[in-house]
Amino acid sequence: MDMNRVKQIVSSPADITVHYHGVSVWIDSYDEKNNTATIHMRDGHLNEKREVSVEELQEV
Fold first, then answer.
1. Which domain of life is it from (predicted)?
2. Cα distance between residue 54 and residue 32, in whole Å
3. Going from the N-terminus, what domains does the chain have, and what CATH number goes with each?
4. Partner of 30 at 20 to 30 A CA spacing, among 4, 9, 16, 44?
5. Would you say 17 and 24 are in contact if contact means Cβ atoms under 8 Å apart?
């Protein structure tokens, strides 16, 4: 995925499915300078956040 799409997804009111290595995630925020996004898993691990490269995210 690219940064422009990440920004669109974050600002969208729609529920857009995004995967990180095959796992469904929410995008919490992004860092354009580092081309990263802060995500958390949709499966209930809401406190488990991680920063990942936007290139590792895939829209489903």
1. Bacteria
2. 10
3. 3-59 (2.30.30)
4. 44
5. yes
Residue 11, Cβ density class (10 Å: 0-12 exposed, 13-18 middle, ≥19 buried): exposed
> Could you report the per-residue pLDDT of 19-57, keeping only the tens digit for each?
999 999 999 999 999 999 999 998 866 678 999 999 999
pLDDT at 40: 93
Place of tokens 């799409």: 5
- Phi/psi of residue 54, nearest 5 degrees: -65, -25
pTM for the model stands at 0.89
- Specify whether the CB–CB gap between 48 and 40 falls below 8 A: yes
